[in-house]
Amino acid sequence: MNSMTSKKTRLPRMLRGSLVTLRRRCGKPGCHCAQGQQRHEAPALSYSDHGRTRVVMLAESDVEAVTAALERYRAAKRELEEQATTALAALTERIAAERANRRQAR
Ligand SMILES: [Zn+2]
């Protein structure tokens, strides 16, 4: 093992998308999933990339960090939208007040 592969990969603080569980055949002919209904369940991150849905497979050990990163993104997005909504309300109130003042001045 070299130093590149032994380093634990750090996950981003924020991620966009949703956690999904894929159920599929692994492709090994001797595996129980080759016959029968029982498939392998594997965690994955589904996300939109320029209008296309993409799926990246996750290691079980990354699921917790990915879940936290998804929640951080959702929280930050909510916060940003609230700020923008508040700013819009302030702008429209200011414009309405200015119009009212102009009407009174005439
Ligand atoms: Zn299998």
Characterization of this structure:
The chain has 106 residues and is of the alpha+beta class. It has one domain. The chain contains two helices and three strands. The protein has helices at residues 3-6, 63-105, and strands spanning 18-24, 40-49, 52-57. The chain has a three-stranded antiparallel sheet with strand order 1-2-3, covered by helices on one side. The longest helix is centred in the last third of the chain and has 43 residues, at 63-105. Mean pLDDT is 89; it is low at 1-6. Zinc ion (ZN) binds next to loops.
The main pleated sheet reads as:
3 strands, antiparallel
DSSP strand content: 15-25%
Mean pLDDT: 89
- Order of secondary-structure elements: HEEEH
Question: How many strand elements?
Answer: 3
Structural class: alpha+beta
What value does the Rg take, in angstroms? 25 Å
Quickly count the helices.
Answer: 2
Identify low-pLDDT runs.
1-6
Ligands in the model, by name, code or SMILES, are:
zinc ion
Whole-number count of domains = 1
How far apart are the termini?
81 Å
What strand order characterises the main sheet?
A: 1-2-3
Oligomer kind: single chain
**Into which percent range does the helicity of residues fall?**
40-55%
Question: What is the approximate shape?
Answer: elongated
